[in-house]
Every structure is written in structure tokens, then in C-alpha cells.
Amino acid sequence: MKIFFGDLVHTWSGSGIWTTPLNIGYVASYAKKKAKEINLEISTQLFKDPTNIIESIKSEKPDVLALSYYVWNENLNSKIMSIAKELNPNVLNIAGGPHFTNINANLRGAEVFFDDISPDCDIYIVNQGEKGFWNAIERFNDVNNSVQKLRQEKIDGTIVNLFPRNNDSNLSSEEKFFVGENIGPLDDLNDIPSPYLNGMLDDFFDGPYIPIIETNRSCPYRCTFCAWGIGTQKLLRFDEERVMKEIEYISKRTKNAASLFIADANFGILERDADFAKEMYKCSTKYNFPQHVIVQWNKTRPDRVLNTAKEFRGITSVGASMQTLDENVLGAIKRKNLSAEQVMKLLTDLKDLGIKETPFTELIIGLPNETRESHLHANRELINLGFSVQNYNLHLLPGTEMDTEESRNNYF
What we know:
By secondary structure, the chain is of the alpha/beta class. A 7-stranded mixed beta sheet has the order 2-1-3-4-5-6-7, with helices on both faces. A 3-stranded parallel beta sheet has the order 8-11-12, with helices on one face. It is built from 14 helices and 14 strands. The longest helix has 16 residues, at 22-37.
């Protein structure tokens, strides 16, 4: 079975913040491991460039096309899936990513996505991708790679589009889509072979891609504008030894990037994160990478953030994304913050250690209960405290609580 994975980006501008496709690397690594267990032979290819994947679809005709959907590439993905179906109606088009979570994995959500966004998609994997994707592939193999037969299957962890491009208005949502049961996340992240250490991501070191590393998965907070961590109950960790090996593996091979992204929602939440920071600084001095580390810091433990930040020794920026300073807004979006005073204390402590930082923070324009004046007040307060402030527009992301009908009715 030939499977093409795509984490596609728009390339018309010739440049952008393009990252190594760790997401599809995890799904592909897990699928290959599970296939080997049942003696199923599969081949995988990973893509970022849409032109490359189109040419490969034309020449190699994969059995499965699997694309990661985000708000920034859903139209691009839908076009690629349309091209794939035109070239081979028997290709199985699978989508994944945060567009569908426990919150909107229902018939109404399916109708919006499959009818309006991506009518050539056959199956969407809900929540984290590894288990649900393998469920679909295993079932696809059971029906001898028949897309028509697969649409008759009940596949948990997925939403199945039973009648792609069928505009029969007499069909109900129940007749058009199947929404599978929630299968939950993996019990152990280490069941996923490292796509770095097994060489699956090696080709991307030659391109203009910024490496990403993940040390743990999930988020203990549930900010209503964010899909991070939905579908998980606890923080899961990759083994420390594995992460250390990945840091060195990436650092030795990266030649065309200066930065490293950490994909954790709250780096510094665990004591061991200081050890990872120390290893990144060690590699920075040894291999000249990473020169800068991009971090989403933990929001409630300034002591651990301090211990972690000092081990970076200046190769990362320290701060806290406030999003708002208004208590009514924080309540509406179910968010907890480090206070500005806690962040300033953190920076003073770092300065005492010889690490001088201009603190950064972020605010979101248009949050529930926010007013023009409260937003401007937050900017003034943070600037007066010496913060570098970035303002972002609010986006009602699919799969988040804020995008639900109830939230829209309450606040928008």
C-alpha cells in the first residue's frame, strides 16, 4: 500500500515560516510500525511542497493521500484532494488535524466540512492522528483497498463521508456521514517511533524548514480559543533519553535554519525541561544549532520557568503570552496567566544570573468581554512595564469551544 502524507504550505511568496513536518512524521512512523506487526507492506512519502506532491500523485498514483488540515492550508488541501480524485477515483483521501475535536465531531460539523470545505475527502481523523489513522488503514486493507467498501465500514476515531460530492438534498446528515466513537489518545507516546531517529525526516534538513521537537503532549488548561490538548486527559511524555537523542540528531544535521521550535504547550511545566534546555545550549555551542529556541512557556510555575530559562543561557526569549489583562475576559475564555509582576520578577532573577532579556508578550484583539478601552489599557500597562507586545486578531478556530454555536450566541 502506497501512502502519501502532506503537511502542505503555500509557496507562492517563495518564503515563509515553514516547519519540518513532525506531525505527519509521527502518524507515518506509527502506521509503519503497526503495519509491520500484521505483515502489511506499506510505503510512505512525506511532502511539504504542493507542486511536488501533485507531480508525485500524477506519476506514482498512491493508494492513500493523507493531508494535515489547518486554517492556513484547508483550501490548498482541498484542491490537492480534488486533483488526486480526478487522476485516480480509487484513491483514499484522508484528512487530519485540529479542525475536528471532541467538540465538533458531530453531524453538523461533518456537514460544514465535507459539503463546504473539502467534498473530495473520504475520511477525517478526529483528535490526535496516530490511532485513528491506523484504524482507517487497517480497515482499508481488510476491504482490499476498496474506497467504496470502506465507506460502508464503521470506523471509530473518524468521520466517514459516505457520499462524496453527492448534492442530493433529500439525504439527511445521518445518511451522508458516519461519526465514529471517540477512541482516546495513545496510552504511551513512546509507542510512536521517532521520525527523526528512524531517518524519516532526513530529507527536510536539506530544505528551508525549521525543525520542531515535541517532549510532551497535551495541555492542562482549556482556553476556549485553543484546540491544544482537546481529547486528552493527562500530560503524556516522550522518554527523556529519546528526546535527548533527538536534540543532538537535529542539531548535527540542521544547516539551513537557525531556530528550533518546541511544540510543547507549556515548556517548563516539568522539572526535566531544564535538562532539555541545557542539552540544547550544549548543542548550540557544539554544532552552532540551535541559535535560537522558540518556546511556549508554562503559565503557572515561574520557579520552573526560571530553572529552565537559565539553562538556555540566552538562546531563547523569555516572556508570557497574556492574551488579556482583564479578569472578566480571562473568566470568559477559561484562562490562567502568570501575572505581569511574576514575569518581571522572573526577568529580574535572570538578569541577576547575567541573562538580560527584553520580555515579550502577546495580546489577542476581540476576545469575549474585551472592550476597545480594556484592550488598549493592556497594551499601555505592558509597554510601561517594558514588554515587547505583539497583538493578534482573534480567529474562531474550528474544533474550539469558542467556535461553538453556544459561544457565538453568548459573545458574538
